[in-house]
Specification:
The chain is of the alpha/beta class and 163 residues long. Helices cover 18% and strands 37% of the residues. The strands form two sheets. Strands 6-5-4-7-1-8-11-10 form an eight-stranded mixed β-sheet, with helices on both faces. Strands 3-2-9 form a three-stranded antiparallel β-sheet, with no helix packed on it. 31% of the residues are buried. The protein has one domain: 3-Layer(aba) Sandwich (Dihydrofolate Reductase, subunit A), CATH 3.40.430. The radius of gyration is 15 Å and the shape is globular. Key enzyme in folate metabolism. Catalyzes an essential reaction for de novo glycine and purine synthesis, and for DNA precursor synthesis. It catalyses: (6S)-5,6,7,8-tetrahydrofolate + NADP(+) = 7,8-dihydrofolate + NADPH + H(+). This is Dihydrofolate reductase.
Length: 163
C-alpha cells in the first residue's frame, strides 16, 4: 500500500479554522479530485462533516472516537490502523485530513501531495512540519493568483527518503 497525504496548507501550515477551509482554490480542487477519484480516502469525522457528506467515486473511510457514529455511504472506524486495514493493500490510499489525522499518519506515509498556499492565516488546524531529512521534494508547479484564485500557490510532491 502506498499512503499519500494530500492537503492544502498555508506557509504557516494552516489548514483551516472552525472546521472550514480558509480559501477557495478551484484548480486545487480539480487536482485533488483527479488524484483521489477511484481510491480509498481516509479522513477524520470533522473533515467529513465539513464537506456536506462523503466524496463521490471514492471509498470514504472515517475515523472517529464516537462508538455510535454512523454516516451513510461511509466506512466508520476508530483508529488510523483500522482505517488502513480497511483499504486494499496493493493500492494508493489518500489521507485527506484533518490536522490530527495528518499528524497521526505522516510517519507511515510514503508520499505527500501538498498545495502550498502563499499566505499566512489564523487557523486551528495545521499540517505537520515536513522534515527535509526524511522527505525529498520531487516536483513543484507554481500557480499564480488570478481572477479565480485569491493567492499564489505551488503544487508540491514529496516522497519519503528514509523510513
Amino acid at each position: 500500500m502506498t499512503i499519500t497525504l494530500i492537503a492544502a496548507a498555508a506557509e504557516n501550515n494552516a489548514l483551516g479554522k472552525d472546521n472550514q477551509m480558509v480559501w477557495r482554490l478551484p484548480d486545487d480542487f480539480k487536482r485533488f479530485k483527479a488524484l483521489t477519484t477511484g481510491h480509498h480516502i481516509v479522513m477524520g469525522r470533522k473533515t467529513l462533516e465539513s464537506m456536506d457528506g462523503p466524496l463521490p467515486n471514492r471509498t470514504n473511510i472515517i475515523i472517529t472516537r464516537q462508538k455510535e457514529y454512523t454516516y451513510e455511504g461511509c466506512i466508520i472506524v476508530y483508529s488510523l490502523e483500522e482505517a488502513l486495514a480497511a483499504c486494499p493493500q496493493n493500492e494508493e490510499v489518500f489521507i485527506i485530513g484533518g490536522g490530527e489525522i495528518y499528524k497521526q499518519s505522516i510517519d507511515n506515509a510514503d508520499k505527500i501531495e501538498l498545495t502550498r498556499v502563499h499566505t499566512t492565516v489564523k487557523a486551528d488546524a495545521f499540517f505537520p512540519e515536513i522534515d527535509e531529512k526524511k522527505w525529498k521534494l520531487t516536483e513543484k508547479v507554481f500557480h499564480p493568483k488570478d481572477e479565480k484564485h485569491q493567492y499564489d500557490f505551488v503544487f508540491e510532491t514529496w516522497v519519503r527518503k528514509i523510513r
